[in-house]
Amino acid sequence: LGPTTAQLRDREQAYGAHNYAPLPVVFTRGEGVWLWDVEGRRYLDMMSAYSAVSFGHSHPRLVKALTEQAGSLALTSRAYSNDRLPLMLERLSALLGYDQALPVNTGLEAVETAIKAARKWAYKIKGVTDGQAEIIVCNNNFHGRSTTIVGFSSEAQYRDGFGPFPPGFRSIPFGDADALEAAITPNTAAFLFEPIQGEGGINIPPAGWLARCAEICRAHNVLLIADEVQTGLGRTGHILACNHDGVRPDGVILGKALGGGLLPVSAFLADEAVMQVFHPGDHGSTFGGNPLASAVAAEALSVLADDKLAERSATLGTYFLARLQAIDNPLIREVRGRGLLIGMELDTQRVGARVAAEALLARGLMTKDTHESVLRFAPPLVITKAELDWAVETIEDALTDLAS
Ligand code: PMP
C-alpha cells in the first residue's frame, strides 16, 4: 500500500508553496475521461485541467507520439532546427488558416508574445510613437499570471501585492462594442479578448458583439487578437470560438489542448503582415518549438481532425446543455455555455460553488468552482453520451441533496 491521501496532502503542504487550495483528492492515474485517486476511487473528469485535457487522459496516439519522440530527440533549443517543428507549424497553418505561428510553451507566454507582436506592429507598421502603444482588454479577463498580464486584470486577488505594473492597457466592459470604439485612440495597437471568458465565469458575449468589434478594429487599423487558449481547438464546438461569429481575428493565441494534455505547448498565430515584426534574436524561449512538444502537438492536431472532436463537442455540448438546463432545482440560477464549455451559476445565498464542487466530488464527479457562484463543466471532448447522462443524474442528485 502506498501513501494515503492525507499523507500526500500533508507533504504537499509542508514542502510546496501554498499558492493553491486543491480539493481533497489525490489523483494517481487517468484514462480517457476517468481519473483514479490513490485510494482506488474513480472520478469522471468534468474539468479537463481547465480544458487542456480535451483529448482525454493518456490518449493512445498522443502517448505513442510522446514516448517515441522522447526516445529519439527531445530538445535542441531553437539555435538549431529540428525535424518535428515543421510538421507542427504546417498542421497549425493548415487547420487554423494563418500564415505563420510562433511556438512557445504556456498560455501566458503566448499572450506575452501577442502583446509584443502588437506593440512592435504598432511602432513599425502603424507608425505609433515608440513607447506609446495601447492595448485594450476586457474587464473580468483571464490571460495568465505574468506581472504584465496580472497588471491589466480586474481581479484584485491576481494583482494584490505584485505591482508595480507596466502601463499601456485599458480595460472596457466585456461584450460592449460601443465601449471598444470609445476607448480606441490613434495609439491603440490591439484589442485582446477571450471570445468566451473562461476563468471569468463562462461569460458568453451578446450575439453580434464580436462581429462589430471586428468591424471597429478594421476601421481603426487596430489588431483583433483572440485569446483562444481555453476556447480553441474544438472546445466550444468549432475549431475556434471566433468561428461561431464568422470572425477571423488578426492574431490567435492557442495553448492548453495544443499539448494534448501531456505537456505545455502554446503558440501565437498570425499572418505575415503581423509576424514580419519578429526578427532573429528579439523573442523566443529555450523550450518553444522543441521536438517533443512539436511531435505531440502535431499529433494532437491530427487527432482533433481525424476524430472530428469539434463536431463532437458541438453535438454533445448542445445535448448536455439542454439536459442541465432542464434540471429543476432552486439552487440553479442559470446554465450557459457553448459546445463542451459550460458554466452552471448557483444561487450563492443558498450554496457556494466550492461546496457544490465538493459534493459532486464525493459522488465521483470532478469539476471546478469558478469564482463563488459558477461550477464549470468542461469534460474531455472524447466523452460519450452515456457518460454525460451519468453526469447529469449525478449533478441532479447532488443538488437535490444540497437543496434539502
Ligand atoms: N488565457 C486563457 C483564456 C486562459 O484560460 C488561461 C489559463 N486558464 C491562460 C491564458 C493562461 O494559460 P497558462 O496557465 O498556460 O499560462
Automatic annotation (TrEMBL):
GO terms for molecular function: arginase activity; identical protein binding; metal ion binding; ornithine aminotransferase activity; pyridoxal phosphate binding. GO terms for biological process: arginine metabolic process; L-proline biosynthetic process. Its cofactor is pyridoxal 5'-phosphate; Mn(2+). The keyword Metal-binding applies. Pathway: Nitrogen metabolism; urea cycle; L-ornithine and urea from L-arginine: step 1/1; Amino-acid biosynthesis; L-proline biosynthesis; L-glutamate 5-semialdehyde from L-ornithine: step 1/1. It comes from the Bacteria. Its EC number is 2.6.1.13, 3.5.3.1. Keywords: Aminotransferase, Arginine metabolism, Hydrolase, Manganese, Metal-binding, Pyridoxal phosphate, Transferase. Belongs to the arginase family. This is Ornithine--oxo-acid aminotransferase. It comes from Zoogloea oleivorans. The chain holds residues 299 to 702 of 709 of the full protein.
